[in-house]
Every structure is written in C-alpha cells, then in structure tokens.
Amino acid sequence: MLVDKPAGKTSHAVTAMVKRGLGERRAGHAGTLDPFATGLLLVLVGRGRRVQRFLMALPKTYVAVARFGAVSTTGDPEGEIVRTGVLPPARLDLPTGAIRQRPPAYSAVRVDGRKAYERARAGETFEVPEREVTVYRFEQLWREADRAAFEIECSAGTYIRTLIAQLGDAYTEELRRTRVGPFAVRDADPRRVVGLAGALSFLPAVALDAGRARRAGFGHAVEADAPAGAEHVLLVDEDGPIAIAQPRGPALLKPVVGFRSA
C-alpha cells in the first residue's frame, strides 16, 4: 500500500494501523520516515513482505525545508535547538554524485547491534560509521530570509538531515518524501492495495511456460535469458509473479524470493 504518512506518527504506528485495517497478522514497511517527516511510506502486507529489501534499495526523492542560523542536536525540530544567527552564503554549494556521509547519532542505523538513537538517548559516547551514498539531484526551490526549500533525489541510505546540516548552521525544519523509485506520494490511496506485479514493475519481467514455471515455483533454476545488465528479474506466467530471480551463468535464472510456496 502507498500511504501518505502524516507528521507526528512513527512509521511503525502507520504500519500497525494499515495492518489492523486490512485484518493482516503481519506487516512491514520499506524505509523509515522520522516522526516529524511526512510523505510516501510503502507498507508491505502478506507475501509483499518478502520483497522489502528490493523496495528499500530504490532511490528516493524528498522536499526539505531548512532553517538557517541555528543547529539541532538531532538535525530536526525534535532536538535541542541553539540559535547562532550565522547564515550560509546566498550561493550554496549543493553536493551531488557519490559522497561520504555519517548518519546522525539520532538515527535508526545500528551500531554494534543497537540502534544509534537508543544509544544516544542513553547518553552513550559512540561514533556512527561513515557510508557512501549518491545524491543524483540537489536543487534549491526557494529561499526567504533564514529558510530555504530543496528537492533532493538520492540513493537509499542517504540522510537528508545530514545533507542540510552540512550546508552551514542549519537543520531540517520540514521533510516530505515524494517518491520511492517509480512510486509517487500523489498516488497514495488508503483504499488501494497494489499487487505484487504492480509493486515489482520496476524489475524486468521474464515469462515462463508451464513446465519452467512449475520448477521455478519450487525454487529450482530455469533456463531463460535475462536482459543485459539485469541483477534481478521477475519470473511470471499467466497466473502472475512466480519469483524474483538472479542470473546464474548463461541463460540460467535462479529464484531467490518465491511467491508460490507457503
């Protein structure tokens, strides 16, 4: 389901609400949004939970409003805010391409098996490891006095709060996720459940005949060609998705996530 998460709710709470509404026993989501943030949350139910890692790996687009002249311990309005009055220059250096980034201490990144924000709230001293992320697009939409809005398209794992904080004395005042891969927040609809075929439409599809479909359904490799450069493909037959598969040698596809087994 494509959900437009409101401000003030955790991603977990929104997922639980969807789960209750659908009468499902289990549900998950494909990428946490901070409580202050709004926008697109992909909620996974039933066998959709099996494709979580593929959806989480999709690029994302955000609109962020920055407040200049102040810093926040969490990089957002929920932290301790100190006014400095120092404004960054009118012409900002907005980084794009592959960059090294250290996620905020108040984040869900795990450090030595524990979530960073849990350790930070406990007053522990620790360092969150740097990671490489990719910023595909970083554009300023407007700037008025000590506030500015930016549209940012980036790889999975990018922290917008960190990008904004690195502009100078600044923190992220508002954050809205507008896209996840091919999915847009404008299409969010609490009455619509997207089937597996639609949810995985970003993967190239490989159609199988009945015999190969049966083998793939049991997790066996099948003879078929994948599009050049494809890391994963969606195996389908006339009844719909069978499995997500990886190329394993010439004209051989091995299922790695199946949808036909219990």
What does the model show?
- With 262 residues, this protein is of the alpha+beta class.
- It has 6 helices and 18 strands.
- It has helices at 11-22, 52-56, 116-121, 160-165, 196-199, 210-217, and strands spanning 2-5, 27-29, 38-45, 60-68, 70-72, 81-83, 97-101, 110-111, 114-115, 131-144, 147-154, 170-180, 183-184, 205-207, 222-223, 233-237, 240-247, 252-258.
- Strand 17 (240-247) and strand 18 (252-258) form a beta hairpin.
- The protein is elongated and about 70 Å long.
Q: How does the major sheet shape up?
A: 9 strands, mixed
| Mean pLDDT over all positions | 91
Order of helices and strands: EHEEHEEEEEEHEEHEEHEHEEEE
Structural classification: alpha+beta
Q: Which stretches of 5+ consecutive residues score pLDDT under 50?
A: none
N-C termini distance: 22 Å
Report the portion of residues in β strands: 35-45%
Oligomeric form of this entry? single chain
Radius of gyration: 21 Å
Strand count: 18
Proportion of helical residues:
10-25%
Principal-axis shape equals elongated
Total of helices = 6
Structural features:
18 strands, alpha+beta, 262 residues, 6 helices, five-stranded mixed beta sheet
